[in-house]
UniProtKB/TrEMBL annotation:
Recorded superkingdom: Bacteria
Protein name listed in UniProt: Glycosyltransferase RgtA/B/C/D-like domain-containing protein
Cytoplasm is among the record's keywords: no
Organism: Simiaoa sunii
Keywords: Membrane, Transmembrane, Transmembrane helix
Transmembrane segments: 7-29, 150-170, 191-210, 230-260, 272-293, 339-361, 368-387, 399-419
Source organism phylogeny: Bacteria, Bacillati, Bacillota, Clostridia, Lachnospirales
Amino acid sequence: MAKKIRNFAAILAISAVVGTMLLVLVFLLPVGPMRRNVEKSVGDMLKSGDEIPEDAFSKYLWKNRETYTDAIMVQNAIERLPDKNAYEHAMWMYHYDLEEDVWTPEDSLKAFCESHENVSNMYLHIYARYWHGYLLYLKPLLLLFSWKHVVWLELAVQIALMIWVLITAIRKQNAGVAAVTLGSFLFMKPLLVMISLTMSVCWILTLLAVEYMLLHHDRLHEKGQYPEFFLIIGILTSYFDFLTYPITTLGIPLCCYFLLENDRAWNNIKKLIGFCASWGIGYAGMWAAKWVIADLTLHTGTIKDAIWSIIGRTEAIGGRPRMNGGFYVIGLNLHEYPVYMGIAAGILAAVAVGLMVMIIVMGRWKNVYAQLLPVVVTAAIPFAWIIAVQHHSALHARFTFRILSVAAAAAITFIVLIVKQAKRSQKS
């Protein structure tokens, strides 16, 4: 335990220092070419009103894609105050907006590009409580490509990663991992994920985590390095994600672990608790490191701002009792799914429940509960997250609903494990 604590502390400290240095370095890049590249496609990427395409498919994409947060990310990438140095930018994360008290990112980005650095009619805001690690790749890409081309490039990366996971899973004779990973993706409105800078971050991190597990599971398991692995996933999620649907980077890899490693019930339950704690320490610890570094070096007041933000994001919605409000917000998130996805989720749940009833009736529960118990607990994680941070989950239900894909991943894992158990029984 003492060794693990030292490892965790060292990894967190190194991550915070390296993360800060990398952000400072990308803020040294010239923003002039980035702005010109953004200007080339800002009109296309922020289409509205009469500019919306006429065909149904394109209209659906433009109507539902997350341009609000994408616009914030892009403007953060091209912002540069002449009287502020790179370190101040990395810590404060300056952002001009047309409004003083509310955010209007799409209109503000358009105005920022059209004004050619004349921001006299705009208000200066800061966004210091996030790391904004996505700038590590977004700024260099915008230096070379337009915003539209960056989105297409990121789409190609996601498709390549999904194919890589599928091929690796088949080669490792564990197609169930691919079924769980790619099957759960269907419950994220996948087309909208693939064409959004914001929504693709957690999905790309999840794919990378699953691929690494497929390639190095034996070493991670034998050397007891899975706690550090989940710690690093939490750190990377905190650093790159914009608080969209982060819990998927924990839940889906957990499901894949249960397919890769068949342990006794209590071992898996203990590992589930340990891995969740490791991810949580990495996620919260890395986030807190940003607040501490910013406050200690520039007296930004980020810690105070972050604490008030946490209080606001986690308060019960609409003055309701917490559990009552939690169930209400779960309903809001479920409502984001189209009817056909609700039917698919119902079928998936019915198959899982039907298999469980069959197992109990046939008296085989003792043979499989060891594998299924941690999967059932994993399925509850997204619901617990929504109840805990229900204000944020209600305010941004249009994208937070994607954490429910963890429950879908758990249901698919449940079915795959039952099928595997049935095959083993037939052989014996």
